[in-house]
User: Fold these one by one.
Assistant:
Number 1:
Amino acid sequence: MVAYVVRRLLLAVLTVWAISVLSFMIIHLPPGDYVTSYIASMSASGSAVSEGEANALREQLGLDKPITVQYAKWMGLMLQGNFGMAMEWGRPVSDVIGDRLTLTMVISVAAIIFTWALALPIGIYSAVYPYSFADYVFTFVGFIGLAIPGFLLALVVMYVGFAYFGANVGGLFSPDFAEAPWSLAKIWDLTKHLPIPAVVLGVSGTAQLIRIMRSNLLDELRKPYVMTARARGLSEYRVIMRYPVRVALNPFVSTIGYLLPYVVSGSIIVSLVLSLPTVGPLLLKALIAQDMFLAGTIVLLLGVMTVIGTFISDLLLMWVDPRIRLGRQ
Amino acid sequence: MRNDTRPLLSVRNLRTSFFQDEGTTKAVDGASFDVFPGKTLGIVGESGCGKSVTAQSILRIVDRPGRIVDGEIVLTRADGSEIDLVKLKANSREIRSVRGGDIGLIFQEPMTSFSPVHTVGEQIIEAVLLHSEVGKKEARLRGIEALRSVGIPKPERRIDEYSFELSGGLRQRAMIAVALSCNPRLLIADEPTTALDVTTQAQILDLLRKIQQERGMAIMLITHNLGVVAEMADDVVVMYLGKVVEQGKVDDIFHDPKHPYTKALLQSIPSIDSTPRLKLPTISGSIPHPFNRPKGCPFHPRCVSAIAGRCDVEEPPLQAVGEGRKASCFLYP
Ligand SMILES: Nc1ncnc2c1ncn2[C@@H]1O[C@H](COP(=O)(O)OP(=O)(O)OP(=O)(O)O)[C@@H](O)[C@H]1O
Ligand SMILES: [Mg+2]
C-alpha cells in the first residue's frame, strides 16, 4: 500500500515534467513568436517597430536563443518559484494570475457543487423509476442541456437577465467592488454573483452526470446483493441508498481528479461572454499574443492540477472501495 | 392428503408475470404447493421454469416489471395467525418483518449476494438490528455466533472481512449465517450449491441438514440437481413452464414417477447401474419460449405419450393420483 502510494507519487512527478515539455512545445508550435505578434499589433494600431528594436526585444526576452536553452531557462525559473514576466502586461506572471486563479477555483467548485447536487438525486430517481414519465422529462431536458453550448446559454441568460430583470448579470462583482480590496462585503457580493456562472458552467456536466449515474445505478440495481438486502427486510429506501447507490457512486470518486481542470479549460468561452475575471480568458489572450511565459504557466498549472487531482482521486478510491484497497485477486 | 399438521406456508394458484414491451412472460402460472414445519420441500425443474421467481414472489421481492397477478401465499406465523403475503403492500412493515424474520433466503450466487463495499458483519448486524430489539454490541455478538454456527473458523475476525476475501464455500456459509441470524422458521435456498465444487456442495448440504435438525426449521430447496433432492427432501414439487406438474413424497416421485416429464427427468440422470458409454436419454425438443407457450398441456410438444386431440387442446388439472400425491396429466384419471 505504501509502495503503491510512493509509486504513484513518482509517476506524478514524471507526468508533470512531461506536461511541461509538451506545453512548452505546443506554445512554440505556431509560426513566429511574441515579438512578431507584438509587431503585428503595433502596426495595426499605426505605429511601426524597427528591425533593431525588434532584435533588442528578442534578446531581452531570450527569444533569440535555441528552443532547448529557452526551455532550460524557463524550467530553471519555475523551480525557483519564479514564473517569469507576462510579456504583454509587463508584470510578473504570478501577479497577473494571482486573484484570477482563486476566482477560477471558486467558480469551478461552485459549478461542480451545483452539478452534483442536481445530477445525483435526479440520476438516482431516473434509475429507480426507469421509463417513468419523470425519467423521460429529465432525459429530454438533460439532452437539451447537453446540446446547448455554454456560451449560447450564457448569452441567453444575460439577455433575459438584462431585458426582463434589468440586472447586469455579467462579471463576478458589482462595479463598486471590482477594484476594492477583499472584505466581507466583497465576498458577499461575489456570492450573489456566483449562481449564474456556476449554473451556466454546470449545465452540460449535469446532463452528462445524470446519464452516467442513471446507467451506473441501473446496472447495480440488477445485482443479486440488492435482492438479498431486500430479503433481509430493509425498507426500500435504505436498500437503495445504502447498497447500490453507494456502489454506483464509486466511479465518480475517480473523476474528481480531472473535474477542476476540465471545468477551467471548458470555461474559456463562457468566461469571455460573461466577462468573468478567471484564468480562461487570460489563457486565450496569452496564446494569441504568443506570450509563452504566461500561457506556459497556465497550461502547466492545469496539468499539475490534473495530476494532483488524479492522485487524490486514486487515494480516495482506495479509501471508499475495499476491492481496490485490498487488491482483490 | 396429509392433515397431521398445518402447513407453514401454503401457496395457492400463484401467478407471477413480467410485463415487458416485447410481451408478457408468465414466469409462474398457477403454482400450488405446501411447505410443512420442520420438513424439506424440494422444487425441481429445468432452467427458466420459474423456480426463482416463485421464491421471490413468496418474499414479495420480484423485480420490475414483474408482478404477482393472482393467487394466495398464506404464512402461518409463530403465534398461529395466518397472513396472506400477496395482500400485503410490497414495502409494508408487515412484509418486511416476514423477510429475514419469518423467512430467510439464500441465493445461488454467493459471489454477488454480498455488497462488494460492505463487510460481512455490516450485513449480518444490520439484519439482527432490524429484527430484534438489541443494541449494536449485542447484535455484533449475535452476528459472530451466527457465523460460528455455520462453521466459519475465527468468526470474530471474519465478521470484519469483505465477502471477496472469503472462499466460495465460506461465502455461502456466511450467506446462510445472514439468512439464519434471525431464526427464521422457513429457509428458502435457491440453488445454494450450484456455484460450488462437489466437496463443498456436500458440506453445505450437511450444514443445512444439521441446522434443520437443531432448529426444526422448514427448508424450501430449489435446485435442478435431482441427486440433491433425493438426498435432502421429504416432499418434491416438479415444475414445468411455471406450473406444478407433479408433487408428492420423495420416495414416490423417485420410484414411481407419474408425469411423463418427471419420468423423462429421472431417466436423464446417470445411475450406478446404467450401461457404461451408453448415451443418456434426453428430453426431446427444448423449452418453449415463454412468450408463446403451447396450448393445452405445456409439456405436450415434447411428451412421448401425448394424446393427440386432447393434450394439445385442454389443459390437465393438477389432481390426486394416489395417496398424498398429485399430477397434472390426462394419463391419470
Ligand atoms: N427480471 C426479470 N425480467 C423479465 N423476465 C424475468 C425476470 N426474472 C425472471 N424472468 C423470466 O421468468 C422466467 C422464470 O425465471 P426463473 O429465474 O424463475 O427461472 P428458474 O427456474 O429459477 O431458472 P434457473 O434454474 O435458471 O435459475 C424466465 O422465463 C425468465 O426469463
Ligand atoms: Mg433460478
Number 2:
Amino acid sequence: MRGYPARRRCVISQAIGESAQTIVAVHQLAKTFRVGFWARPVAALRQVTFEMRRGESLGYLGPNGSGKTTSIKCMLGLIAPSAGQVALFGRPPSDPLARARVGFLAESPYFYDYLTPNEVLDYVAKLYGIDGPTRRKRSRALLGQVGLDHAAHRPLRGFSKGMLQRVGIAQSLIADPELLVWDEPLSGLDPVGRNEVRELMGELRRQGKSLFFSSHVLSDIESLCDAVCILDQGVAVAQGKLTDLLRADALESVAHLGLPDDGGAALLALQAVPLSHWEPLADGQRVVLPTAQVAELCRVAVQAGATLRELNPRRDSLEQLFLRKAVTRRQDSVGSPA
Amino acid sequence: MSAPHTTASGVVLRTSGPLAALLRMSAVASNTVREAGRAKLFYGLLGAAILLLAFSIVLSDLALVDQKARLVQSFGLAVIPLVCVATATLMGGLLLHQELDRKTLYAILPKPIARSEFLIGKFVGMAALLGIELGVLVLCWWGVLHLRGGTLTGALVRAFGLAYVELLVVTAVALVFSALSRPVLAGVLTLGVVVVGRTNYVLADLLAATKGVFVEVPAMRSLGKLLVAVVPDLSTFAVADPVLQGWVVPWAYCVSAALYGAAWVAACVVAAALLFERRDFT
Ligand SMILES: Nc1ncnc2c1ncn2[C@@H]1O[C@H](COP(=O)(O)OP(=O)(O)OP(=O)(O)O)[C@@H](O)[C@H]1O
Ligand SMILES: [Mg+2]
C-alpha cells in the first residue's frame, strides 16, 4: 500500500491475483437478480472493483441495500456474478482450496438448531479434514474465546441472536484461516459483546490475519480498519487506506498563526487571503482556508511577521467522506442515467 | 494422496484427495440422519407404522386360524413399503429445502466442500435413514408375525430388499425435484412419479391395447409413451403379491432390479447435482 496514491489503487490490473500480496481481487463485479413472475431485473451490484492485501483490515461500508451482502456471497461462490470476476488467493471462489483459507461469517448466521455449539464446530471442522483430537481441542478453545463455554452443550434452539453470532464467529475461525470475511460481525451484540468482538478482531490482526468485514457503523470501521471500500447502490465509490482517503479528500486546511505585537496590521494583511473561517485565540489566530490557498497564506504571514505555529489538513470524518461520495455519485448519475 | 495444508498456527487441514472427500460426505450424511432423528415428522411416520402393525394383531384375530400369519404377512408387505415411500417423498423434499430456507447452507457451502459432495452426502444420509426406518419396521413386523405363528422366509426378506431399492429411487427423484423447485411442488411431483411409476405397467398395457384413449387420441398416446419412458418403473420392485402367492423371487431378478434401480439413482443424483451447481444461494 505504501507509496501508492489513493486513487491509483482503485485501478486493478487485468491479471487478477497476480501479486502475491493481493489476497482478494474483485474486478468489475455485477449481479442482476430476476424477481417475480416476469423475472424483472434488479441490479444489486453494478460496478464493484477492489483489492485487498495480505494483513490488511478492510472495512466494507455502505448503506442498507447497497450490495454488501450480495458481493460477499459472490466472493464465497454462493452466488454466481452476472459479470466480472472474483479471485481469492489468486483462485476462483469455486475452488475449494481457495475457500479453505477463508473463514466466513454470514449476516445473521443460522445453524442447525438441533446441534450444540460443540457439534456445530465438530461438523464444520470435518469439512476441513481436521482430525478428531484437534477438532475437540480447537472447539473448546474457540468456544471459550467467544464466551460460550457455559452453553457448549446446549442445543442452539434456545440461543439468542448474539449467542448465535458468537457461534458463527467461532465456526469461522475453526480452520485457522488467513482471511476472515465477516458480514456485520458487530450487529446483534450487546455493548459488552461488541467490545469483546472488537478486541477479538484486534487480536486476530495482531496474529497477522487479514480481516474483511462489512458494517454500517462508521465508528467501528474507523477504529478497526486501515482501509475501507465504500459501496453505494451497487457501485464501489471509493477505496483506499483510511488515512489517505480522508486526507486526500481534505479540501480545507486549518492553520494556527501567532501574531506579532501590532496584530492589527498583520490581520489586515491576512485579509488578502481568501479564508473561509477565522477565529481569535488567546495567543493568535485560528484560520480555516481552502488547501489550495495554503502557499499564499504562508507567504502573506511571513511578510506580515506572523508565525505559522501549526498547519493541518482538515480531516473529514468518515461520515462526511461517505456522505460526500454517495451524494456526488447520485448527482452524477442523475445527469447521465445509466 | 495429496499433501495436507498446515496453517500458520499448526492446524493440519486435509482438503484434497478421495479420503478427505469421503470424510466430508460422511459428515453431511451423518448430520442428515441426526437432523431427521430430531424431526417430529420422522417419528410421526414411524409411530403411525408401528401402530398399524400393532393393529394387524387385532385384525388377525378376526381371521381364521390358518390365515392369521398370512394376514400379518400381506399387511406388512403392503404397509411397510408404503410408509417408507411416504417418508422418502416427504423428507427427501423437505431436508434439502430446509437447508435452503433456514440458510444453514451459508455455513456449509463456503467451506472447502463441493456442492456435489454435499448433495451426495444428503442422499447417503437419507438412504441410511430409510434403511433404519425399514429395519425397525421389519423387526416390529417380524415380532408380530412370530406371535401369530408365521416365519420370516428368504422370499419375504428379498421382497423387502427390493422395497429398499425402490426407496432409494424415490429419494433420488425427490432430490432432483427439491433441487429444482419449492418443497410443496417437489413433494407433489415426487408423489406423481411414485403413482405413475408404480402403475407403469398399467399404462404400458393401455398403450399396447387395441382401443382406449391412449390408443385413439394421438396427444394422449404421446403423453403415455413419454411417461413410460421418463418415469422409473417402480412396479419392478413391488413383488408383494406374487411373493404372497408363493413365488420365490429369483436372485437373477433381484440383481437386475437392483441394477435398474442403481441406474436411476445415479442418473437422478447427477441431475440433482447439476441443478444444484447452478443455483444462487441468496
Ligand atoms: N435474492 C434477491 N432477489 C432480488 N433482489 C435481491 C436479492 N438479494 C438482494 N437483493 C437486492 O440487492 C440489493 C443489495 O442487497 P444486499 O443484501 O447485498 O445489501 P446490503 O448492503 O447487505 O444491505 P444491509 O446493510 O441491509 O445488509 C438490495 O436492493 C436487495 O433488494
Ligand atoms: Mg447485508
